[in-house]
Structures are given as C-alpha cells and as structure tokens.
Amino acid sequence: MVGSLGPNSRKHKVTVVGSGNWGTAIAKIVAENAANSNGIFEEKVEMWVYEEKIEIPETSPHYDASSPLCQGEQNLTDVINKLNENIKYLPGVRLPTNLHANPSLEDAVKDSTILVFNLPHQFILRICDQLKGKILPYARGISCIKGVDVNENGIHLFSETIGKRLGIYCGALSGANIANEVAQEKWSETSIAYDPPHLDSKCPTPHRSPNSSTVDIVEFEHKDTSGQISDVKLQPVPNEYPPVDHALLKRLFHRPYFHASVVNDVAGVSLGGALKNIVALAAGWVDGMGWGDNAKAAVMRVGLLEMVKFGEKFFGATIENRTFTEESAGVADLITSCSGGRNFRCARLSIERNLPVEEIEKTELNGQKLQGTLTAIEVNRFLSKQGLENEFPLFTAVYQILQGKMSVADIPHHLEC
Amino acid sequence: MVGSLGPNSRKHKVTVVGSGNWGTAIAKIVAENAANSNGIFEEKVEMWVYEEKIEIPETSPHYDASSPLCQGEQNLTDVINKLNENIKYLPGVRLPTNLHANPSLEDAVKDSTILVFNLPHQFILRICDQLKGKILPYARGISCIKGVDVNENGIHLFSETIGKRLGIYCGALSGANIANEVAQEKWSETSIAYDPPHLDSKCPTPHRSPNSSTVDIVEFEHKDTSGQISDVKLQPVPNEYPPVDHALLKRLFHRPYFHASVVNDVAGVSLGGALKNIVALAAGWVDGMGWGDNAKAAVMRVGLLEMVKFGEKFFGATIENRTFTEESAGVADLITSCSGGRNFRCARLSIERNLPVEEIEKTELNGQKLQGTLTAIEVNRFLSKQGLENEFPLFTAVYQILQGKMSVADIPHHLEC
C-alpha cells in the first residue's frame, strides 16, 4: 500500500467528553493505552473540561507560594495540564502527560474518530446539540454514562440518544467500577458493548469500496421500546484507519488493573447499570432489618432474575441473558452496589433510623439524589402503564415501599410463589 | 377408586436422617409442613438422632431442679422429645411437637417413603450400610449434604452415592442457607433438585400398570464423570401414594420464611455448594488486600464463570448454566459465602495477619477444617490430571496460593486475558 490513503495509514484520535471523577479516571486509562498503542491511536488524547476557575489552597500538596499557578484564580484546564492532575474532581491521582485538558468542546473533538462520553446524563442533550456538525461524520462513540432514560412511553439508552442526535454509532461501557478505586488502579473489571451495523467489519461490505476513502452512506435503524424508529445515516469508518472493532476497543480500555470484556449487547450492559440500583435499595432494607446474609443474597438473586426478565421482555430481540448473569456490567455491578453503594447505604440507614429514604437522602447526600429511587419510580410508571407490575414483584415492592404503601417486613410474602 | 390400594390412599412418611444444627433446622421445616399437609404426609415426622448423653446445665432456661429431666445425664433424644428443642445442636429454637427424635436408625426409617439425608458427609457410607435392607425399596431420598466428593478420578455427587448404595433415587437440596438463620425463621431461599427416571410421573409409563400396587423393576443408569456406570434397579413409588414430584417436594420444604424452588439439575445444585467455597477463599484474600468492592465483585464474577464452565465441561449432558447463575444454590449461595462465611473470613484474616490460611484455621475454627481448602486441593488434582488447570485460572490461583507458590497480589495478572 502506498500513500496516506492506504489501510491503517491513519491513527485514531480519541477525545473524552467530560472530566468529573469518572470521566477523568476513564481519560487516564485511555491516555495510558494511547501512549503505548504502536500507531493505532494518536498519542495525545483530548479531554473536554467544562472550564471553571479554581484556586489552589494552601493546604494542597501542590501549593507553592512562588509559583504563578498559585497566584489567585486559575483556569481548571491550565491547572490540570500543568500539574497533570485534576485537583478538583480526582485529587491525588497522577494523570498521563499525553492527556490534554481542553476547554473548547469544538477543538477537543475536531478530527476525533473515537468519542468517549462521560458526563452527567442531564447534560447529554445540550452537549450533543453543541457537537452537531463539529464532529467527523464517521466518528464512533462509547457512552460511559450509567443507567437508561425510562419514562411511561419507553426506555431509551443514553448511547442511542447520543447516536441519534449526532448521526453516529455509539456503544456503551459499564461495570463494577467505583471511579476513585479505578483511578487508584485497584483491580476491577468492566464491560464494553459495541455492535454497529456491519459497516465496519473487516470484510468489505457491498457498500464500501475497499481502496477508496469515499464515504458511502448506508441507512440503519434504531428501534427502541417506544416503537419509534428513526433512520440514521451511518457512515463507515474510512479504511485508512484501523477498523473500530472489539479488539481495538479492548486495546483502548483494557489495563492490567482494569480488565475489559467486549460484547455486543448494548442494551444489556446499559440496563444493568440502571436496574441494579432498584435491587440495591431492597438489599439495604433487608440488611437494615437484620435478616442476615441469606436474606440479602435472596433479594439480590430475585433482583437479578427480574433484571433478566425485564431485558427479555422489552429488549428481547437484542439482549442476552448472560450479560446480566455473567458480565461485570450485570452480576458484578449488582454485587458491588449491594455491598456499599449509596442506594444500599441510604436504604439500610432508613431502617436503622426508622425514617423514609428521602429523609436519609437529604441528610446524607449533600443535595444529591439517589439514582435508585428515581429509577424505581420511572420503571414502575413504565410497567404499570402496561399492566405488568405483577410480573416484577421485587421492582414493584421497592416502589410500593418508597410510596409508603407497603412495609419492608412484607417483602418475603410479596415474593412468595 | 375403592379400597386402601387406590390412588393417594396412603400418606408419605418422612424421616430426617441426621440432627446437627442444619439437620434439626430442616427437620423443623419438614415437620411444620407435615402438620398441615391435608393428608399428603403422615403428621409425625421422624428425626434420627445419634444418641448421646447430655446434662442440662443450671444456666439453661430449661433447668428446673425438681424435674426428673434435670437429674444427671439424660438421653439426647429424651430431652429433645420432652422439651421440643435440640438443646445441644440448635439451642433456643422451638421444634414442632410432631417431630419425633428417634435413637434407632432402623425404627426411624421403617416404612418411610421419603428420606431426607442431613449429616456430615464422612458418615454417609457407614449410615448407608446400616440402612441397607431396612428401607422401603421404593423410598425416595433428598440429600442436604453440601458439596461433592472429588478425587483424581472423578466427581461424585453425595446424592448419587446415597442413591447407588441404597438402590433408590436421591435428589439434592442446597442454597444460601446458614442453619441458625433458617432455624430462626429469617427469610431465605433454597434450591431442590429432583429428576428421577420417568417412573414416578403422573403419566403411567409402559413399565407401570396404573391400578396395581405391583412394583415393576426398571433399570436406570447412573453415569458419573469417572465414566463408571452402575446399574441401579429403581422401583417406582406405588400409586397408592401421591406422586413424589416437584409439587410434592415444594409442599414438603417450602415455608413462608424458606422459599424453595424445585429444579431438575441435581449436579448443578450439588456442585454449586462445593465450588463456591473455592471462590470464597479468593474473595477473602482480595478483601483482605483492601482492594475494595470492585475487586471483590470481580473475583466473584470470575469464580461464578468458572463454576459454570466446570459444570459444562464435566456434567455437560445434564447441567444447566442457569442453576449457577440464577438459583439460590448458585449465585445466592456464592454471595452469602463471600459475605461472611468461614472460608471468606479465614482467608481475609490470613492477609490481615500475614499468616497462611492453615494457621488461621487452627486458631479460629476449634479443630474444624475449612471446606474451601480441601475442595480447592481436590479440584486441582482432578483438573491437573486432565491437563486442564489453565482453563480454570481462578481455581488454579487459589490452589497455588494455598501451596505458597503464588502471591495474592498476582491474582489480577493471573486472570488477565
């Protein structure tokens, strides 16, 4: 092959959109792998940072009265780039020098072929609107945003929302991953789901002429559970780039301390991260009752089965049971969340203090909201509209308890069959 | 139907063989259900007790200086029957009055159609030899004995060993069941596996004439992984009795506080209770290292997958993956064992105190042995004889660590793929 248009003559540029503690932890991983990629990825990885002003406090290990960085307010991006540390959202963790904090969204994503989305879900639509027209039309996305968007009318995966808004394909990453533990390189696992239409396969498709950089346009369908179908014109990744496939995503995300498994089941990986929070509330209540480890394991097992059933019922065509029962994004994330996650802890405290969960939420979470209570209510609205509450007795029990219509002591009877 | 030989004109007599804390807890459950069975079971349930002498101490709530029961040594069975409490092995738990402690094995099993085996596994062979010729030839068994018998040459289920020795069919019961919690009626779940050859089905088989009490003899095959096939002549349960099927076993074992699920997969239910102890050691080590909840969930997930793989490889014809990933005897028992079970606790202590597990075992367990270390060694012998150690990296890592040939810090690298 000759010239810059030959296969694999170009490297993937990777941008992480978001820089909270989880965003920064993932950017660290991606930059570490890009630095040792043997020409697959550009070494420099961009991380878009919502710019804010910060001051380095005198108590910080980075404080140096003589440094210009310590003279009053500074841009967060400047501080990150100079110190190689996100002292605001991931303090104490050294970042690779090839990770560049960029305050300009447009500049950060320019020419990027791989976009990693890792920001609070309430910002997705706004950010996508800002990204429209600014990204490569053949870029690929990975959403690290936990959970799904559920309402009466349907369940929407954040990865799908991003994909539709931007006209690109977007997969998902989820697992038993507490951001600070991952950042400290404590061993964990994750699941990456990626299953685009067969445009990017190594075998050339009829739509693609292998030696041309011309981008063919192929239509594929996004079908969500609301029955809504939107046609997105998906463009194949030009073949000058290494193919964006499972092996490439493993190279981008797998680390010795962060074991990544790459699967096809985007819906399963995304749903696991949402539904487990409902189960964690139930596990916290049962634990608070002092019923012991048997009972806690029982409620987790029943919850896992309802997750499987929910997936089968509403994403039957695409979901695989084994995602819930065998993947990090399923059973392992459930176990972690029922060990010490905030939904579990607040539910347990609510029994110990004999207060409703929302009271605990107010006193314990500094104004933040529990994901589990929101998801339990949303999922219940969706199920009850379809008359399916009885088929999910644990999810329904959690909702009823949150509404004060059932007591925790009734859980075993409610689950009896 | 007319006369005493008509369908369902006879009731099942149930005997529990064994009276430790788990044996007594199960006997309590069975007797509670027999007392309310609407004619399916004899009300009186027998529990065979290895007779011993005990003295009621003055500190006991049952002590009454004027009672003949408190004048020196008494038979344990007399004490159980008079106080309705097994003060030696399950103190503080009231037993149903229709449960009869019986010191005579022969008398306890006489005319019993359902035998529930619940005693330490090292006594099985001896007890079976004593039972030979003393039980009904068409009795059915349920083994509550945890684990399996593994050696270099094969894996033998205790239920199979009992069945072969006695010439009867024997199923298995296992789950996330800590005996004392079950006895205190704290909610838990269990799995019962029962899958006899089609002799007992409601549809008459060619071997069985529906209106006769004649017992036809049919041969069925027990095939274990050693390749050894033994022919057992299995006799159908006469049709004067209600059929011994999944529904009947649910009536016998299910309680509002003890939810029983009845499945076919005897090998899966039995293997789960053995292999989870290997995983619990790894979880304890990882927890002891302070690697956090992500890492503990990861090692449990990998362990669960190796349990599935082990089942598929060696019991492929009969085992169902979902037993491990969805049943109480699988994932829930694994979760319980990795929360506070003794294998988990001793492994964690071994890291915290920087001592080998066998040292912790000596100081913490009053001379008892950890099941996990025995099983890890037995399973390793079996795997290594077949050259399959590399296919089970976690099981192999646990063995290597126990042998001092690998360090816990190497677990993540060892599991990397």
Automatic annotation (TrEMBL), chains A, B:
Originating species: Penicilliopsis zonata CBS 506.65
One Pfam assignment: NAD_Gly3P_dh_C
Positions of the catalytic residues: 276
Positions bound to substrate: 146, 342-343
One Gene Ontology term, aspect cellular component: cytosol
Family: Belongs to the NAD-dependent glycerol-3-phosphate dehydrogenase family.
GO annotation (BP), single: glycerol-3-phosphate catabolic process
Residues the entry annotates as binding NAD(+): 18-23, 123, 179, 342, 369, 371
Protein name: Glycerol-3-phosphate dehydrogenase [NAD(+)]
Keyword vocabulary terms for this entry: NAD, Oxidoreductase
Lineage: Eukaryota, Fungi, Dikarya, Ascomycota, Pezizomycotina
InterPro entries with a match to the protein in the record: 6-PGluconate_DH-like_C_sf, 6PGD_dom2, G3P_DH_NAD-dep, G3P_DH_NAD-dep_C, G3P_DH_NAD-dep_N, NAD(P)-bd_dom_sf
Enzyme Commission (EC) number: 1.1.1.8
Record-annotated Glycerol-3-phosphate dehydrogenase NAD-dependent N-terminal domain positions: 13-196
PANTHER family: GLYCEROL-3-PHOSPHATE DEHYDROGENASE, GLYCEROL-3-PHOSPHATE DEHYDROGENASE [NAD(+)]-RELATED
SUPFAM superfamilies from the UniProt entry: 6-phosphogluconate dehydrogenase C-terminal domain-like (SSF48179), NAD(P)-binding Rossmann-fold domains (SSF51735)
Catalytic activity: sn-glycerol 3-phosphate + NAD(+) = dihydroxyacetone phosphate + NADH + H(+)
Domain Glycerol-3-phosphate dehydrogenase NAD-dependent C-terminal: 265-411
UniProt-recorded Gene Ontology molecular function terms: glycerol-3-phosphate dehydrogenase (NAD+) activity; NAD binding
